[in-house]
Amino acid sequence: MEQTLQILHPAHCPQAPIRAVLLDFDGTISTLRCGWDAVMREVMVEFIGQCSLEEAPRELIDQVDAYIENSTGIQTAYQMEWLKTQVDARYPQYAYRDIWWYKDEYNRRLMRQVSQRLERLEAGKEAPSQYQIAGSEAFLKALREEGVRLFLASGTDHADVLREAQALGVDSFFEQIKGAPERAIACSKVFVIRQLLEEQKIPGQELVLIGDGKVEIALGAQNGTYTLGMATDEVHRRGLQPEKARRLVQAGADALAGDFSDLKTLAEWMRLAL
Asked: Which pLDDT belongs to residue 122?
């Protein structure tokens, strides 16, 4: 098996067995929302430019692409807040639209494809593995059996994360699943990491944050934990995606992987005897 783990900072690796892992969901474990960024790009360009994606000036597309890249992993409401700011600055007559108006429109378009995938899964017409990053379920199972505490936090709405985790058959691995609250702006990842560090007294040196966005990497750095950047290829579900890899390296991830198929090497990095 090809080794997929890249250790980027050898001087900052776990020195004792990891006791808890906080994982992102979309793009880290699940590909059910693969294509979300293209939908968001279309929505943002359409409302900011008041034109179709095909008609939009290159500089606007580049601005939107840069924002989406830098905001991957945060609650969708924050992204819609940025969109509203951009639209209001150009078209004051639309200031009556709040961030939830934009979020509803984005979700409406995104859920066209997500709902179809979920329906096929829940009807047994497709297998969960078709929407899982390679090796992710085996990775979760092995960690759980080793006694590692698993937590999931996502910027996607809480009810949707619960349904999608259940549809993929991974919900039972987690001690807690936390998605974005309905009609409220609050970072679920910040909430869970504070809960682990402050309330449950898990030392940062025994905690790993795993995700495909800069948010997880930044949170890890801010809180003294270890970080594993998942540069996943959501289309093929295995292997490194170069642009994600570049972004996560720049964000300062301690280690990098494209999937979870090399369980032995991942376990060794986490100081676990799986």
From this structure: 93
Whether residues 203 and 262 fall in one domain = yes
Mean pLDDT of 105-110: 97
Is residue 103 located within the same domain as residue 25?
no
| 227 occurs within a structural domain | yes
Secondary structure (DSSP) of 175-194:
SEEEEEPTT----HHHHHHH
- Contact call for residues 103 and 76 (beta carbons, < 8 A): yes
Count of domains observed in the chain? 2
Identify whether residues 56 and 188 lie together within a single domain: no
CA angle (10, 15, 19) in 5-degree steps: 120
Tallying the residues shown for the chain, one arrives at: 274
Average pLDDT over residues 161-186: 93
Quick one: pLDDT band at residue 2, thresholds 50, 70, 90? low
Domain end call among 89, 122, 155: 122
Tokens linked to 225: 């934990």
Indicate whether 258 and 149 sit together in one domain: yes
Continuous segment of H or E residues that includes residue 41: helix 36-49
Residue 228 and residue 217 in contact, taking contact as beta carbons nearer than 8 Å: no
The pLDDT value recorded for residue 91 is 97
Pairing of strands 20-23, 149-157: parallel
Mean pLDDT of 75-95: 96
Q: Final residue of a domain: which of 103, 122, 141?
A: 122
Of 19, 270, 56, 251, the closest CA to residue 151 belongs to: 19
User: Is residue 212 in some structural domain?
Assistant: yes
Mean pLDDT calculated for residue range 171-182: 93
**Cut 0.70: pTM above it:** yes
